[in-house]
Design a protein that fits this description.
mainly alpha, Four Helix Bundle (Hemerythrin (Met), subunit A), two-stranded antiparallel ribbon, 11 helices
Length: 231
């Protein structure tokens, strides 16, 4: 199967067909699909939308490849947002109620770690690989930033970006290894029945992408703000 980089606008043969495949969404039935795909409506009606493949010329993209690409883009944003920053810069907050780059990157990684571990049945890297200790925080899986206030945000003060990037890279590598094994049946597998409709693996994976993308974007924005302010 021929592969290409979705992020490269100069790829030969990528044109109007790519415009149709414009957005990853989560359908209530549980499958991770491309909303603009030409066959989307019929696949949804037939209940077989998890079997979708995206065809661009002679190129076929599997859902797992698209998901891997999305998580890799988040990882790249994390690296760009933290590279070369000091402790003061990582913990900078425009005002007391704001989040810092350090907290944003730590929190988004905790979310990915926790949700992917729950989906796969594995232990979280936070405890299993000793990252809680490296951050000087409790080895408690509930410590993930949800519900944190200004005091908790200010308390997260890594010496530099290494521990933040190290933890994130370790979690993303776990995520990629899992996504390489994902097929249609796995995307449709229900993992949380506390919602109506129940949440499938595919929906959860896209939910994490949405959460992580927002926080990684916020971190990148803060990085640019500091640069403009001479911080």
């Amino acid at each position: 199967m021929e592969k290409f980089d979705l992020r490269n606008p100069d790829v030969k043969g990528v044109g109007s067909e790519l415009e149709l495949a414009h957005a990853i969404v989560a359908h209530p039935r549980g499958a991770c699909i491309l909303a603009g795909h030409w066959g989307y409506s019929e696949l949804v009606r037939s209940g077989t939308q998890s079997q979708i493949r995206v065809h661009i010329g002679a190129i076929t993209l599997e859902a797992s490849e698209i998901l891997i690409d999305a998580y890799t883009r988040i990882q790249e944003l994390v690296h760009r947002s933290t590279e070369g920053l000091t402790q003061e810069q990582l913990t900078y907050r425009p005002e007391e109620g704001s989040n810092s780059i350090a907290w944003l990157v730590w929190h988004l990684t905790r979310i990915q770690d926790g949700h992917l571990a729950a989906a796969t049945g594995n232990d979280e890297a936070w405890v299993a690989d000793g990252w809680a200790e490296k951050f000087g925080l409790p080895g408690d899986l509930s410590v993930n930033g949800q519900g944190d206030g200004p005091a908790e945000v200010a308390a997260l003060r890594p010496d530099g970006p290494d521990v933040l990037v190290g933890y994130h890279d370790a979690v993303v590598e776990r995520t990629r290894a899992y996504l390489r094994t994902v097929d249609s049946a796995e995307l449709d597998r229900i993992i949380d029945r506390s919602y109506d409709p129940p949440v499938s693996v595919g929906v959860r994976l896209v939910s994490v992408i949405s959460d992580n993308s927002q926080h990684a974007g916020q971190a990148r924005y803060l990085n640019g703000m500091m640069d403009r302010l001479g911080k």
